[in-house]
Design a protein that fits this description.
This protein is mainly alpha-helical. The chain has one domain. It has helices spanning 22-38, 44-49, 52-76, 81-111, 116-126, 130-137, 149-169, 173-196, 202-206, 214-223, 236-249, 261-282, 284-290, 293-300, 302-322, 330-361; strands at 2-4, 16-19. Strands 1-2 form a two-stranded parallel sheet. Helix 1 (22-38) crosses helix 13.
């Protein structure tokens, strides 16, 4: 078996059977931590912009799927859309629908029969359109589901990525460049139009794949080795520092109000997340750090960590409020919340996710991450 845990330099190699980057599992865990602190009051400074962790998930997903689909094409001379969608279903749907079911049951237990509006939001969750509904109506009021709009966002992306990759992998270099530039310009024009027409919520700009596209976009470019030329000019660690620098620049462009600066901000987000990803992929020093066994272990469970972390916050808040013998402060709340989220994600991965991941492997053309 030919195995790679680095970037495939030759996408036309038909002998590659497995693609796995353990360091990216570690990076996934840190993406989760950014989101986690964003939704917790302990770290007020990071809390403001920890949402970039979502974009780090986006760039990781786009890169890995692009790399896998390119390898599949050169192995089989095609891309099986059916197998791709089945793999995504087995990975995403089990705990997503399980958690939605739990949330609905909790809501019914606490509030009784749902209103028409709540019914509409439930349908939005099941139909993977909650990002659109959240952009229009606001956060989902069902317990612990406000963050699940990102799952809808990614599912919408998954519909198109095999089609896009199949088109691009068959295209000349010139066609690829024209296509990428054209899409970038088109999506920015859509965003400019929304801003010019006084879109009344940052959510409309930030929750749709066509208006928050930079991280997905650049992850695909890295998947096509589009940034490899940088390695001849800049050290990988320096690229990582550039990514952190652009993350810090985001503080200069707050998302509180709709303005044309949002275009600069999301551009900075795309540069930040892609440079961090690219640096981790190419720096031996960073690979060693992010390939730490604990980080990899938790990174493999990052999907569950992400899905359950709002519930973890709720459980921690309940414990501190209702159990008088427990200390009551933000740090203790943070520890309780993170601990419960980690424990729940480990159990979920073992009991719920692993059986479906084993089924998913039956539809793999290129073997990916070991369970």
């Amino acid at each position: 078996m030919k195995y790679t845990n680095n970037i495939i330099k030759n996408n036309k190699d038909k002998n590659i059977e497995r693609i796995y980057f353990p360091e990216l599992d570690g990076l996934r865990f840190f993406a989760f931590l950014l989101v986690f602190v964003h939704h917790h009051s302990l770290f007020s400074n990071i809390n403001t912009n920890g949402w970039i962790g979502v974009d780090l998930f986006f760039v990781l997903s786009a890169f890995l799927l692009t790399k896998l689909l390119i390898a599949e094409y050169y192995k089989t001379q095609t891309i099986s859309f059916k197998k791709f969608y089945i793999r995504r279903i087995f990975r995403i749907w089990p705990i997503y629908f399980l958690f939605i079911g739990f949330s609905i049951a909790l809501f019914l237990f606490s509030n009784g029969a749902p209103s028409n509006y709540i019914g509409m939001r439930i349908i939005g969750l099941f139909a993977f359109s909650d990002n659109i509904m959240t952009a229009i109506y606001g956060w989902n009021p069902l317990p612990y589901t406000a963050h699940l709009w990102t799952i809808a966002y990614e599912e919408q992306f998954y519909i198109f990525i095999p089609i896009i990759i199949l088109f691009l992998v068959r295209s000349s270099f010139k066609t690829k460049v024209i296509y990428i530039i054209s899409i970038y310009i088109l999506f920015n024009l859509i965003r400019l139009t929304l801003i010019a027409n006084n879109a009344n919520s940052t959510a409309i700009i930030g929750m749709l794949p066509i208006t928050r596209f930079e991280s997905i976009f650049m992850g695909m470019v890295i998947g096509f080795n589009g940034f490899d030329f940088l390695l001849k000019k800049v050290k990988p660690l320096l690229l990582g520092l550039i990514g952190i620098f652009f993350f810090l620049l985001i503080y200069l462009f707050p998302l509180d109000n709709i303005s044309y600066w949002i275009i600069a901000q999301y551009t900075f987000v795309g540069i930040s997340t892609s440079m961090i990803l690219f640096s981790v992929l190419n720096s031996d020093f960073l690979k060693k750090i992010f390939s730490n066994q604990i980080f990899v272990f938790l990174g493999k469970r990052s999907y569950g960590l992400y899905v359950y972390h709002f519930l973890g916050n709720g459980v921690a808040s309940y414990m501190i409020t209702h159990i008088s013998i427990l200390p009551s402060n933000s740090f203790i709340s943070f520890i309780y919340s993170l601990s419960f989220t980690v424990i729940l994600s480990i159990i979920s991965y073992k009991v719920v996710e692993t059986p479906f991941l084993n089924l998913k492997k039956k539809f793999e053309v290129i073997i990916s991450r070991p369970i």
